[in-house]
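Hey team,

Filing this mostly as a record. A colleague (T.K.) asked me to run one chain through the structure pipeline before their review meeting, and I want the input and output archived in the tracker in case anyone asks later how it was produced. No errors, nothing strange. Just documentation.

Input sequence:
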Amino acid sequence: TPDAVAPVTEHDGERLQKVLARAGLGSRRVCEDLIAAGRIRVNDEVAVLGRRVDPVADRITFDGVPVVTRTDLVHYLLNKPRGVVTTAHDPQGRPTVLGLVPDDPRVFPVGRLDLDTEGLLVVTNDGELAQALTHPSLGVEKEYLAEVRGVPSPGDLRRLREGIDLDDGPTAPAQVTLADDHDGNAAISIVIHEGRNRQVRRMCEAVGHPVRRLVRVRIGPVRDPALAPGTWRVLTPAEVRALHAATATRPGPAPARG
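Output structure:
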């Protein structure tokens, strides 16, 4: 009689601890300890030592957060300069963000920054992470530094924090602080988790302080004040896991105000 076919999980693929180590979770010994502690799941099942996996086909999580094991995925952090559009192609021939990152593999920007808005943008070919970062109910915090005309009063700041009635509905509560005040103008830090078109600009205009310059300085847990405008770098495995974790732990929407 022919030999029985060996189970895939025992004889095919790579050892799980090797895949986890390559993904940046630590040494193989550390990864073995994570497996032994029951903190690693493969396809929603608690993994055991000796498990073999397919890094492309199997879904692996650490404490419920996806671990990126596919070697064909790339994650770039780009500091978008003013005057560059956040699209793959522009009919008007303006420079695009994809012209600032490598051509291969093919990637796409996650979310959008307006033509005149600067700052951090994730560019990737990781569809799962992109969907999580842009999903309305899972969107991570984005922090902006807005230089505005005039100096917002405490009442203006309170309105921004509590929510502004815009033409497409009220904004969610935001974290707003006065960051700088000089020469009759000011800079304010605004943290939101929504992704409406030109939202920060419209919020500031609504309280009478139009934006003069707008820079996104943080996406969830990721910031990099040393990244020069127009340049990019590869996100570390820890940063990619932190972005996944941020989408997994977003609180639900705040109860409606009476």
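Quick notes for T.K.: The longest strand covers residues 211-219. The helical segments are 8-11, 16-22, 28-36, 127-134, 154-162, 199-206, 237-248.
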